[in-house]
Design a protein that fits this description.
The protein has about 210 residues and is mainly alpha-helical. The chain has one domain. It is about 50% helix and about 10% strand. The chain has 9 helices and 4 strands. The protein is globular and about 50 Å long.
Length: about 210
């Protein structure tokens, strides 16, 4: 089971103190999704992965974390409207805003994961169109991270393949991944699975057990 506790944190941007729910402990049962989303019960703790200040809108893993963004920047149209994406999930809004903050702070890797989590939040309320938008954006960001060479390239290549397939980017996935190979047999099996599903134009969610049986 997962345990939670409440903690008073002071926002690093505006100084407002509020109570936030934090994770005490959690565990997981089953296989992760192919984009590495953890299985229950850990996946159900997402609401506590992030904190959004109700006073100024600053979003962080912990709102007391220092940041270079200002109250004025948080009032910008792009931040307030999530670049015009009409999310149906408040949690997706928070993760997307975290993505924008990470970009502003020059942290593209955490910006990538924040927009990936926004896609997961959309999945949970069947906001399929906005999940697709987030996955396409995340796939583009993953490509740049892979080119930069400062990440676990194999893991990110596989996450990107799943993002592309679930976003309906079938032809691009097949073209870009047909020449990719891994020494690890499981990774190769996952990649072949993704390509096979792309050829069938399958956008469904699968986990590692779907591949291994």
């Amino acid at each position: 089971m997962s345990t939670f506790f409440d903690k008073n944190n002071t926002c690093a941007v505006c100084g407002a103190t509020n109570s936030y729910t934090c994770i005490g402990s959690t565990n997981s049962f089953g296989a992760p999704d192919l984009d590495l989303r953890p299985p229950p019960m850990q996946r159900n703790t997402m609401f506590a992965w992030i904190q959004a200040c109700p006073a100024c809108g600053y979003v962080a893993n912990d709102v007391s974390d220092q940041t270079k963004v200002t109250k004025e920047w948080l009032q910008s149209k792009g931040y307030q409207t999530c670049d015009g994406i009409a999310f149906r999930s408040k949690l997706a809004v928070d993760f997307y805003r975290r993505h924008l903050i990470c970009l502003e702070e020059g942290d593209p890797e955490n910006a990538f994961y924040a927009v990936l989590y926004a896609a997961w939040s959309c999945d949970d309320i069947e906001d399929d169109e906005n999940a697709r938008i987030c996955r396409k954006l995340a796939a583009s960001m993953a490509a740049k991270l892979i080119e930069g060479g400062e990440v676990n390239k194999e893991n990110l290549l596989l996450i990107r393949a799943d993002l592309m397939r679930r976003a309906g980017m079938f032809d691009e996935l097949i073209e870009q991944y047909s020449s990719v190979s891994f020494q690890d047999k499981l990774l190769s099996k996952i990649l072949n699975f993704q390509i096979a599903k792309a050829k069938k134009k399958d956008t469904a969610c699968y986990n590692v057990q779907s591949v291994t049986g």
